[in-house]
From TrEMBL:
One of its GO terms (molecular function) is microtubule binding. One of its GO terms (biological process) is cytoskeleton-dependent intracellular transport. Residues 3-99 form the Calponin-homology (CH) domain. It comes from the Eukaryota. The keyword Cytoplasm applies. It comes from Ladona fulva (Scarce chaser dragonfly). Belongs to the hook family. GO terms for cellular component: centrosome; cytoplasm; microtubule. Keywords: Coiled coil, Cytoplasm, Cytoskeleton, Microtubule. The lineage of its organism: Eukaryota, Metazoa, Ecdysozoa, Arthropoda, Hexapoda. The keyword Coiled coil applies. This is Calponin-homology (CH) domain-containing protein. InterPro entries: CH_dom, CH_dom_sf, HOOK_N. It is found in: Cytoplasm, Cytoskeleton.
Length: 99
């Protein structure tokens, strides 16, 4: 099941004009491509200040990847609640397990 979801994420990211490599699961595991896509979706919310919190070039550092993913999850939840004024009862993804 996860394999199909991972493939879908890569396909979705390919619809954006992003600088970060995003052809494989390993490429997107640091969250940089997702952050760049979010910046294109709403550049006022996911602005340069928010983007500066996402570390690029993290290599294989699990800790930095998880840190990026946590920031992305929190940013999406805040965007959903504060910008879109929507409140959903959903379980947040576990960044530690993803990392």
């Amino acid at each position: 099941m996860f394999l199909e979801e991972e493939k879908l994420m890569i396909i979705i990211l390919q619809t954006f004009d992003i600088d970060s490599s995003h052809a494989t699961i390993e490429d997107i595991s640091d969250g940089v491509a997702m952050a760049q896509a979010l910046n294109q979706i709403d550049p006022e919310w996911f602005d340069a200040r928010w983007m500066s919190k996402i570390k690029t070039g993290v290599g294989s550092s699990w800790r930095l990847k998880v840190s990026n993913l946590k920031k992305i999850i929190e940013g999406i939840v805040d965007y959903y609640q504060d910008s879109l004024n929507l409140h959903a009862d959903f379980v947040r993804p576990d960044a530690v397990k993803i990392g």
